[in-house]
Amino acid sequence: MRDRVRVAAVQFATGTDLDENLATCVRMLDAAAAEGADLVVMPEFCNHLSVYESQDHCRTVAVSLDGPWLGTLAQRSAEIGVYASLTVTVPRDGDRVTATNVLIDPQGGVAATADKQMLMGNERAYLSAGSEVSPVADTAFGPVGLYSCMDGVTFEVPRTFAVRGARLLLNSLNSFALDEARLHIPVRAVENGVYVVAANKVGPLLLAEQVPAFSQALGVPPEALNGAGESQVVAPDGTVMAQAPLTGEAVVVADLDLSLVEPDRLEGRQPQVYGPLAQTHTTRPDVERDFDVIVGCVPGARSNPELVGEAIGTGASLVVLPELTPPPPNISPGLLVVTTARRDDQHLGQVWSAEGLVHEQAQVHLSGRHPNATRLGTEVSLYPTPFGDLAVVVGDDHRYPEIFRLAAIAGAHLVAVCWQPENRWECDLALVERAAENRISVAACGPPGPLAATMLLDPPADSLWNPYRSNPYNGTINTPICQRAEPDDELLVGKLHPGRAVNREVSKDTDLVGGRPWQASAVLVESAPAGGLGCD
Predict the structure, then answer these.
(1) SS3 sequence of 381-406
(2) Do 85 and 222 have their domain in common?
(3) 210 and 358 share a domain?
């Protein structure tokens, strides 16, 4: 098994002419091979734009796995001796058509395929989602995972490959959203401790005559409906090794050393706790609540306990403290204070009210920062408040995307995080993504320091498919609204809107929680861990 491989991500536009699109794929494959690439990743929907006149039309422009369209590309891969990964639509039994990742090997064979699990918006009108766990591809440089676009906007599908030993993930995209390159792509690398190669489209993603209707339905300007490019290669620590521009055809290459992927990177996972991930049931958050709450986060509370009183004086109904900070001796009626405490062999998240201690949540995963916390929690529980159901995340549990997902499945509106992160990616990528992929409010409080670990995160007021936006479209799918303390700030007070968790749809008929790929998540519950949590 080889550890060193040169990879390329190529971005380009496609249209509705299958022959022209094939010629573009071959041309860009050759361009990447000329740069010395051993493996080339191309975008999603390479055979045809993802817009169709009818179901029959959708099936007509799909390409068979053993047909001439992919056969021509396979022949060219064999001639130049490279792996080629791309996503095309494939006709299946009956009237079904799937969006399918295809990995072609240097001999021209199909090394692996993976059907897209989460379809986005209008794709659901014509395509069928995958319903089985996608296989890990066996390559000359070890196990590799394949996924497409929306499957990387939530954590489950990439995670299924990582827990089965994949050191390299390949993502083919067809997206106009700016937060793909800035959030959703790099976070999948660092939370799994693997390399990610992602190729996006550029140019129009719709026919010219369709742009006005989609622009109105989505509530976005017409010029925002082009592919957002920024194809990239990301290292296991979240560093972007190479990135293409926002517009225009491009080939970006990077040399990977897969031996740098730590074998024990996911060893701290607790699959026995994750059972609800692989079940269909999802609790939708209660709608009959007061959905605005003033939150005071007090990063300076350890050194200056008087700041807690200052936070309360702002009218906050919820105060979040750094981990292991004692709660104030007197708590007024209507106020909740969240912190953590050690008790024997446990590290416990705690919610305090005027009545005293009202809720506890045990740390679920082992943490090197809390070596004596060996009796771990076995579930994620919620505490009902006037502003929604609250979950508390303890220790380093935030590093595991499964924890926030369990809270969302249980119906949480809001998550309080009492933490002390050690890496910038935990603040800049991981926590932001936890709020984004679950459309949930987050209040995180850590001590002052260069990581600026205290922040309030809110889901956007508008989902993507919304012609009546309350705010102008900012180019993203679901990046949360962030209020973040400066590194030396000792107090952050702001308003959160936990009620937005009631609407979990990121686009038309695309529920981030209820529509999660629960079948694929069987791997996350049953499989033995392949290693541990991200990188330092």
Answers:
(1) CCEEECCEEEEEECCCHHHCHHHHHH
(2) yes
(3) no
What would the two tokens of residue 460 be?
């956007």
Residues 214 and 352 in one domain: no
Per the structure block, which two tokens stand in for 392?
């508390």
The first and second tokens of residue 534, run together, are 């991200």
No. of H helices and E strands in the chain? 12, 28
Amino acid at site 527: S
Number of domains the chain contains? 2
- As a whole number, the mean pLDDT across the chain is 95
The residues near 362 (Cβ < 8 Å, ≥ 6 apart) are 346, 347, 348, 349, 375, 376, 377, 378, 394
- Pair (246, 291) in one structural domain: no
Residue 480 and residue 397 in one domain: yes
**Mean pLDDT on 210-237:** 92
What is the residue whose two structure tokens read 């709450």? Answer: 293
Using CA atoms, how far apart are residues 6 and 17, in angstroms rounded to an integer?
31
Quick check: is 529 in a domain?
no
Q: Which residues pair with 250 in a beta bridge?
A: 11
Please report whether residue 382 resides in a domain.
yes
- Alpha-carbon distance of 143 to 501, in angstroms, equals 37
Domain with 327 in it: 283-514
Does 228 share its domain with 328?
A: no
Q: Same domain, yes or no, for 233 and 303?
A: no
What are the C-alpha distances in Å from 519 to residues 63, 146, 153, 280? 26, 17, 17, 8
pTM over 0.90: yes
Q: Which residue has the tokens 């861990």?
A: 529
472 pLDDT tier (thresholds 50, 70, 90): confident
Opening angle at CA 10, ends 5 and 15, nearest 5? 150
CA distance 10 to 250: 6
Q: Radius of gyration (Cα) for the chain, nearest Å?
A: 23
Which tokens sit at 1? Answer: 């098994």
Q: Is the pLDDT of residue 348 over 90?
A: yes
Q: What are phi and psi of 171, to 5 degrees?
A: -120, 120
Residue 273 lies in a domain: no
The answer to whether the CB of 319 falls within 8 A of the CB of 443 is: no
Residues 102 and 136 in one domain: yes
Strand stretches in 187-306, DSSP E: 195-199, 202-204, 226-228, 232-234, 240-243, 250-257, 293-297
pLDDT score of 526: 85
Q: In terms of Cα–Cα distance, which of 434, 429, 445 is closest to 412?
A: 434
Asked if residue 521 belongs to a domain, the reply is no
CATH number of the domain that residue 37 is part of: 3.60.110.10
CA distance 520 to 156: 8
What is the C-alpha separation between 204 and 13, in angstroms, rounded? 7
